[in-house]
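batch job 7 of whatever, protein = DNA polymerase III subunit beta
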Amino acid sequence: MLRLMKGFSLTGSDSDISIESFIPQRDGDLEVITIDRPGSIVLQARFFSEIVKKLPMSTVEIEVEQNHLTIIRSGSAEFNLNGLDAEEYPHLPQIEEHHAFQIPTDLLKNLIRQTVFAVSTSETRPILTGVNWKVEKGELICTATDSHRLAFKKSEARY
């Protein structure tokens, strides 16, 4: 789901797990995103990510027309995607503020990469098919095991 407020919010979800990233409209004095009309749209992640990978320019324009037709432009490239009404899409539960933390994207990718290799691929022990995330004392602790391998990584988390 794409949502524009005072920036650009991108949410990915498969109904079991969701992740949200936010790009603010301004970075200091620099305007990063120009918003003509705020709004929301749901796009199929597979098509949207393939389009984004192929965009020729660093500047991207996203326009939503009638019936949720979404036009993505970059340089001379133009892509049309059929979207869905964001109001009909299930909303993510809001995390209570005292449980929220911030971590740089690259660091999060590294934490996942350095622990996910130890996750079990066998569905016979579903408790071992994920990475355990725990935040305590200002640290994010990630642990994974398949009962043969153990991965443990921790990093600073800002509240």
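notes: Residues 97-156 form a domain with the DNA Polymerase III; Chain A, domain 2 fold (CATH 3.10.150.10).
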